[in-house]
From TrEMBL:
Keywords: Membrane, Transmembrane, Transmembrane helix, Transport
A cellular component term, taken from the record's GO annotations: membrane
Transmembrane segments: 20-39, 46-66, 86-106, 127-147, 178-207
Subcellular compartments: Membrane
Name by which UniProt lists this protein: Cobalt transporter
Topological category with respect to the lipid bilayer: Multi-pass membrane protein
Organism for this UniProt entry: Aurantiacibacter luteus
Domain Cation efflux protein transmembrane: 26-222
Family according to the record: Belongs to the cation diffusion facilitator (CDF) transporter (TC 2.A.4) family.
Main location group: membrane
Domain of life: Bacteria
Gene Ontology MF terms in the entry: monoatomic cation transmembrane transporter activity
Amino acid sequence: MSGIPAAIEVDFAYGRRLEWWTLAWMSTIIAVMYFTMGASKAMQSALIEDFLSLVPAMTFLVAGHFEPKKPTSRFPFGFARVNSLAFLVAAVALTLVGLFVAWEAASALLAQEHPTVPPIEIFGQRVWLGWLMIAALVYSIVPPVILGHRKLPVARRLRDKVLHTDALMQKADWQTGLTGIVGIVGIGMGYWWADSAAGLLIALSILKDGISNIRTASAELLDGAPREMDSAAISHEAETVIAKAQECWPGSTVRLRESGRYMIAVVEGVEPPAQIPPHGELTGKVPDWRLARLTFEPPQSDEA
């Protein structure tokens, strides 16, 4: 496999543009959050998650650079699976940061740390730092809402789990912003635990997504059956292709694995046909570019 199928070239290019926009916008958010976070655990957790949100974007761009390349002597099967590797990298990073943020927030709760948000002087006027924190968090909400909304449909059309993970990360970003605002307001009202509790909620959300993505990414790298975009369940598209192939070759055993955004099918127990039907006949409503390779393994002989 080499190159990007013509059916998804436009979406693939659009996905790359969205990721470049993500790097640009999230960099400005990280800068704003850094200069306003103070000692707030919720703000620190939000900053770490915003920084983490750069990882899926960068891995998508790196994978997108290699995937279209032609096979080489060192990589004779091409680079389609670089997308699977990028997905695992993003999932592991997500999980590790979730663990770190959870430890930081839980430690603060157990130690009963009382964070303070002091006033600062701006142009000769004393202003509560919490207002600047809230303004920064509001700003951190807007770009992720827009970018995540645009990425989800593109990810589904591309069958790209890295881009899908990034879209979910953008959703977590704006939810983190809202949770952080609650934590800052809680501090202002005298509830010392609100800030750390908000940080812990953020961490648990990150951790849940990370563990789920690691399961799916591991199955993909271990030649498991294709999984759904948002769960470890076997995808409906894979079940459709298996059913169609068994209709064409009754009595056969069909094995299907995922390679990046593509599916590889092996039909066992039948002789290779003189003419293989078009992939569109085997995929039904599933886009035919998804079935990248179809091979046959004849029945084993009974020779002693």
